[in-house]
Amino acid sequence: MLVNNGLKVTKAWFIETGTAPDMVSRNFTTHVTPEAVHQFAERTRGGELITEDNLAGVAGTIIQPDANFERQVSIANGWNNPRYRFLLRVANPEAPNGAIYYYSGYTDTPNWSIVSNDFAPDMRMYFNNAIQVNVAMRHTPTGPVPYVTVHECSHMIHPATLGAMSPSDFNTTFNPNNGFGVQNQPSTLRPSDLMTTISSVEKNSMAGASNDLFLDMRTGVDLCKSSRRNALPSYYLHKTTDAFIYGANQVAGQIGNNNPAAPYDIAAGKAAERSAFADRFFSLLAVDYGYHQNGFITWQDFNRSHPEVQMDGVTYVFTRGEAQKHDVYISDRGNFDSMVGDRRPQTLLITQIMQSIPGVLLEALISFARIRVTNMTVDNSVMVSIVDPMSFADLPEGYLITQIPHLEQRLKHIIFNDIAFSNYVPFDLSLTVDIFGESFALLGYNGQPQVPYSIPTYCDSMLSPIVTTNGNVLGTMANDVRYLVGQTVGFGSY
């Protein structure tokens, strides 16, 4: 039995959702053209200046969501049924300062009983986000001021929460006629996964004709975390290429190291993600209450692990009517087109934006905002404006407002500069982003009538571009990035 080191659920909010249109997943793909190689080399000064900011405006031409969606995504009980989305605030009540954890997700049903004043015991809870906020007091001439920073902001990934239409979608298959080779391995596409797949290729190359092949299951889909920043092409490319170069440089300084897999093993370590099993709160649910095996925890088991959720003043439940009274937007799938089979350029644009924006907002401690973006300006430059920001954390009064000008510039630079056609095709976009709830977009594109979109951001880990059921995507991306680095830096093995 694991212990949670005094961590308690101090607040739990459950809000009933609306219904959503049918959704699809578009995984990342790489496009390493000669032009892209030249741009990357020029922007990074031959690989010497690899930063997220430096790659903005280039990365979006190299790392893109697949225009042809990979798969249709399902959700427990279907998109046409409401459920609850939740946000948990977790902390050690005896520690006045330190880490505060936030976990968000959704349920399979809206099974709240006004008779028992409780949820159904078998209601399932699925986790979508894990966020760690560090709180300290900074002493200033005018007195102590809270200092709040985001230490972690990750998607929770599990095969059962990826919306598979078939239970076999995320099963690794083998070809019995091809030695011990993998026929198809659904994979995560995190930067570290690119390194480990090249490492396994090099190890198998060393095995040669012995048939003692190395089977690397580290990239297979399992319970794991993926930084929400991985959905930003500029960050993704920075993290990946920087790790490549770091690994090669480390091995270059080791006399007698002739292991061709060594640079990639080192690179994988540098690009490693936070472990779900090292999470002080979540590891208890994963190991002792079956989340690792099932991909969910029942309300009954969650009560057993954290009985404090039944205490007065901890759990708040908002039914659909109550939620609407609190200016929470509710989606009705009848008002929006299904994304299945939708290959319109404006739909791809919305996909890119809604994959990227939530992570940037969360790192700025914002969970809700209204955002207007347009390039229909005098000089065709992109303009971004943010109003009505709200935080999920306890912040000093007026703090968010002071951060908005910087955040507007950051969204413009690292997101909209990376949408290749934003400066060439006129568009006007209005967003209502509720990261723990339902988000909405209204997009006018290239003079066409505005198109409304509804995105269930409370479960957007299942729409993550960092997951694929196509066993070829990971190897292709890894080889493309290796080629990009090799052409730029010129390490021999690249």
Q: Poorly predicted ranges (pLDDT <50, ≥5 residues)?
A: 209-215
Count of separate DSSP helical elements? 13
Beta percentage is 25-35%
* Structure class: alpha+beta
Mean of the pLDDT scores? 87
> What profile does the largest beta sheet have?
8 strands, mixed
Multimeric state = single chain
Distance between the termini: 46 Å
Count of DSSP strands: 23
**How many domain regions?**
2
Estimated radius of gyration: 23 Å
Helix content: 25-40%
Shape: globular
Task: Describe the structure using short key phrases.
eight-stranded mixed sheet
What would your notes on this structure say?
The chain is α+β, with helices and mostly antiparallel strands and 494 residues long. It has two domains: 266 residues, no CATH class; 105 residues, no CATH class. The protein has 13 helices and 23 strands. Strands 1, 6, 7, 10, 11, 15, 16 and 17 form an eight-stranded mixed sheet that branches. β20 and β21 form a beta hairpin. α4 crosses α13 and α5 packs across α6.
Please describe the topology of this protein.
Elements: E1 8-16, E2 23-25, E3 28-30, H1 34-43, H2 52-55, H3 59-62, E4 63-65, E5 71-73, E6 84-91, E7 98-107, E8 112-113, E9 118-119, E10 124-140, E11 143-157, E12 173-174, E13 182-184, E14 187-188, H4 191-207, E15 224-227, H5 233-252, H6 262-270, H7 282-288, H8 291-294, E16 297-298, H9 299-305, E17 315-318, H10 320-325, H11 345-363, E18 366-374, E19 383-391, H12 399-414, E20 427-434, E21 439-445, E22 451-455, E23 467-468, H13 473-489
Parallel strand pairs: 1-17
Antiparallel strand pairs: 1-6, 2-5, 3-4, 6-7, 7-10, 8-9, 10-11, 10-16, 11-15, 12-13, 14-23, 18-19, 18-20, 20-21, 21-22
